[in-house]
Amino acid sequence: IRDDQESAAYYTANYIKKRILEFGPTSERPFVLGLPTGSSPIPVYKHLVQFYKNKELSFEHVITFNMDEYVGLPRDHPESYHTFMFSNFFKHIDIKPENINMLNGNCEELQNECQRYEDEIARVGGIELFLGGIGPDGHIAFNEPGSSMKSRTRVKTLAYETVLANARFFGGDVNKVPKLALTVGVATVTDAREVVIIIAGAHKAIALAKCIEEGVNHMWTVSAIQLHPSAMIVCDEDATLEL
Ligand code: GLP
Question: Residue ranges of the domains in the chain?
Answer without folding.
Answer: 5-240
